[in-house]
Amino acid sequence: MSTIERAIDKLGGANSPSSETGAEGHGKAAIDRDGIAGAAQDAGLLADEGGQSRIELDFQRLKAMGMMTPDGERSQIAEEFRHIKRPLLLNAYGKGSIQTAHPNLIMVTSAQPSEGKTFTAVNLALSIALERDRTVLLVDADVAKPSVSRVLNFPGTAGLVDYLADHDRALADLILKTSMPKLRVLPAGRRHSQSTELLASESMLQLVEELAQRYSDRLVLFDSPPLLATSEATVLARLMGQVVMVVEANRTKREEVKEALSLLDANQYVGLVLNKSDKPFGADYYYGSYQKYSE
Fold this sequence. Notes:
The chain is of the alpha/beta class. It contains eleven helices and nine strands. Helix 1 packs antiparallel against helix 11 and helix 3 crosses helix 4 (117-128). The protein is globular, with a radius of gyration of 18 Å. The two termini are 32 Å apart.
């Protein structure tokens, strides 16, 4: 039985309230979190001393949405994301169980929309940004339905699609600083009718190579589209070193999980995160899950 098959068996049918997750020997999960509703208000995009755009993160707002914040509190959600990020970090820097190209490139996806992938991607980015010797770039690669800007509460700006469509764009001009020194964001950018082709282009391949190799201490998280909803996710997955797939308890069927995983490289490292589970979090759990958030 393959690693992925064992992981699916651990789900026990993802539509069961007591389902568990795991991949490559990494654990189980559960926690409840409220959702995020409505469009962003009071957008927090400022300019730093050099004139570059900077996202002013509203940690009180994020905490009210049930997300982790760097306020020093040993909260349940912060602890869970510490468990989630650890195997990813170990793999990214050659101390884990895998050997793959570009292990510092991590895609966060799901089988279907509204299973919590953006919530997971943003929280992972916030957690990794607290590492003493690592930085993180969060890329909104869900170009059909970008959500990172709404969650982090800044207006839509030029980003990934603009860079791929316009060769005159400088990547450094599109990456936004944030009020967390070790967190950067690359927005999705404008909508484009050929977004799949752009993500499959030579420009995207060159961008991925640059992001993977330019900074040795940087992890790059891609908030991607759902695997079964668009073709962009499958194209993007081929460029990644690691994949985190969010599975919603009480909703996602095992057949959907299997179908989504079948679109990935069979040898690719895949971690499963169970979302909206009623099972309580325990000290031996590695992968977290969250209730009600549906982005």
